[in-house]
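Hey, weird one. I pasted the hydroxyacid-oxoacid transhydrogenase sequence into the form twice and got a warning about non-standard characters only the second time. First submission, copied straight from the form history:
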Amino acid sequence: MSFSSYFTHKPGGDRIFSVEAPKIKFGRGSLQEVGDDAKGLGMSRVAVYTDPRVVQLEPVAKVIESLSSSGLDFEVYDQVAVEPTDISFKQGSKFASEGKFDGFVSVGGGSVMDTCKASNLYSSYPADFLDYVNAPIGRAVPVPGELKPHIACPTTFGTASECTGIAIFDLLEMEAKTGIVNSKIRANLGVLDPSVLSSLPPLVRAANGFDVFSHACESITARPYTHRPAPESSEKRPLSQGANPYSDVACLESINLIGSHIVQAVNDPVDENYDALMFAGMLAGIGFGNAGCHLPHGMSYAVAGLAKDYSPKGWPEDHPMVPHGISVIVNSPAVFRKTGPACSERHWKAASAMGADLTDTKVENGGDILADQIIGMMRDTGIPNGLSGVGYSVEDLDALTDRSYPQKRLIDNGPMPISREELKELFRAAMSYW
Ligand SMILES: NC(=O)c1ccc[n+]([C@@H]2O[C@H](COP(=O)([O-])OP(=O)(O)OC[C@H]3O[C@@H](n4cnc5c(N)ncnc54)[C@H](O)[C@@H]3O)[C@@H](O)[C@H]2O)c1
Ligand SMILES: [Fe+2]
């Protein structure tokens, strides 16, 4: 797929893409080395971020033991909110500011790693909360300098937050998710130990798997980097650069791994599934960290932000929520049917990597073939049937559209322009699939 005609230069478009590769350690037993890694990064007093459930699990015990045996001073913050909000980001930042830490270790899913990134940012360079948040919702003020060192230890495999300069939260007053996107908030090291995944509830595994798939598939089908307007200067080149030859390689292999492992990993897992899925999540993270996602993620921020009465099995039940991976994948079939004609071969290859039988199929039907393949796998893994399965009806179409249309960074990164009316029709098409 690399250097395909997809990347033919368009007048006014960029001619350059940059590759930001995170530093990663991968393998069973890697958590036992976190103490040495923290010392190597110059930490002496460490803030350990986690959530109320993960704090009781083995990964946190392993990290604490490793920090102790390396002689490091640390304090644990176990109050991270699952699917964090501006309020919970501020609470995490307060802990960081008061504790006088010189380094951070996060142990948990995307909620924990993102909260830790934000806490490091706001405690290192205090500012009005919206200053660092994406424009147009926030002011996207540049981060003034380097942050304190951060080691991110994921206990899920979907978000790849350990690879990205992204921290996502729910802005409560807007009833929509948004984020802070800046390469300076990326962790200095990601430590991926696949054994941590064995305690994940089945639906969380499914949601993570589809989050990975969607990161990879959105990156492959994103607008090519050569069609994004060239920036005025190097530092203005965005992190979400569009599809590029580097992200293509990582993302196609990631879809292959998800396609071969996700159904078994949800229904009847074996150890080998966890290694494959964690690696797939990391590959897609490197890919979408450079290419950027588009419509399924842009729409998901409204689906998650407006959650009314859906309480899925496997997540905390204290408030209704549409967890991230589910809020994304319920949109994906509708989106890929629509975007298929813009780059059908890319959709067709993604369907093949996901396991679709392409015998007697036509490349120009790539979008529909991919959508059908996703729908089949959603059914096999217990994912709800579209937006109606997570509590929405056609009466919510305007509210959903209003809250996702401002996600310019994502909507503009799709392979075709999408009007507000088209976005509303995508939500309508995503209401139910079977
Ligand atoms: N920063 C990024 O690049 C990025 C990308 C995508 C999504 N996100 C964000 O990440 C968040 C979602 O993160 P997530 O999907 O990783 O899940 P999560 O952190 O929200 O955790 C989901 C649930 O699983 C539990 N859990 C975590 N690890 C476990 C384990 N090993 N065993 C048992 N239970 C475990 C948690 O306690 C929680 O109840 C959302 O807020 C989403 O918007 C961030
Ligand atoms: Fe995601």
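That's the output from the first submission. The warning seems to come from a hidden character in my clipboard, not from the data itself. The first strand starts at residue 24 and ends at 26.
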